[in-house]
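Usage

Read records sequentially. Each one opens with the input sequence:
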Amino acid sequence: MSWGYTAKPEAFMEKRSSLYGKVFKTHVFGRATIVSTDAEVSKSVLQNDGRIFVPYYPKSLTMLMGDPSILLINGAPHRKLHALLSSFFKSPSLKAQVARDMEHHLHLSMPSWSQRCSPLRIQDQAKSMAFEILVRALMSVGSGKDMNFLRHEFREFIAGLMSLPFNLPGTRLRKSLQAKKRIMKLVRQIIEEKRKKRKQGLNPMDDVIDVLINDSQQDAQEEGNEIEMKDDLSMANTVIDMMIPGEDSVPVLITLALKFLTDNPTALQQMREENLKLKRLKAQAGEKLCWTDYMSLSFTQNVITETLRIGNIINAVMRKALKDVEIKGYLIPKGWCVLTSFRAVHLDEENFSNPYQFNPWRWKDKEAGGFTFTPFGGGYRLCPGIELSRLEAAVFLHHFVTSFSWVAEEDSIVNFPTVRMKCGLPLTLTPLPSYPSFPSQ
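and closes with the structure output:
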């Protein structure tokens, strides 16, 4: 996997594709692997998830995520859990809450940003905000001791996802497993407290834990405490799974969007004008922005879409074939791993003209769908938080580009083990005349 550490990791794919075609054999993490850089083959793999293919990830990741992880479960249990989470994350009430929470965090942070003499590391700021917002949506934990504990332990946990699979004292994997154990203890305490409130006649539906408890209640009544204890363990695991976007996906999306806008002043200017126009219209009407306003900004959404395409925050998924299967003339043997490379498809000039050019205008009047564009995966395992991720990014970008101009320090994108800016994208900010973005409170 050394190619993952290079500035252009897709060069590995391109070289082998030119020699052997868009589907070829290699070894990844020591496993015999079929790599697909073909959109149609990847589509077939994703759409047959759970029937012909099942998740198949490095041992360190599977050990840390655990058997109940939504990333690893299959069949009816996965479909049920995925449907529950998708319904919750798509709810208008949650979107309104998330938009308000992001505005609140920005309202508290931006005045100090405007007075800074030193560069601001945007990636760190976005991580802090996105993590707190998501944790509140998952289990109603606010700022304070528990939030700080979760933030620290969760970073310890995810640091081992792509580590060497040796559970020995002092190893990265052991430290991450211990961190997850500590997180699980706190999350299960929160679940137990919520169950007690329900028994007292309180029946809130404020967060993901409430939704999961509500779904499990009938089974618990039928089968007793044993199923309740099992459900609590699975729920805690699901909550930890769902914390990952707050630490990685959303903050990196925001950071990369600002990096690409910095490198493309024309796109930045058009996006700033679009957002300032909305800001003026709402001010003239004496109205506050709501979540639908942010999602209505067409060029801003195109910037987010193009950032997802060229940034490739989720660059591939891995599956194992349950039986011999032929797709588009390619034989995938039973037991072999299949790596579907989203990054290779997104950066293929057959799918996108000038694929390495950041060009949000390419999405004008074009639907951001199909299996040539899969930034959130696809098929039955499509990320349930797609719309929420876009919303969080849109809220942050709206207030940032209408409040500041900036100069960026030299920085570079790191692609492995996760996509991120090497130095966090340090920006020296200058407030715009329209600042502040928020009315005094």
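Summary fields computed downstream for this record:
- Residues 2-431 form a domain with the Cytochrome p450 fold (CATH 1.10.630.10).
- Residues 146 and 186 are 8 Å apart (CA to CA).
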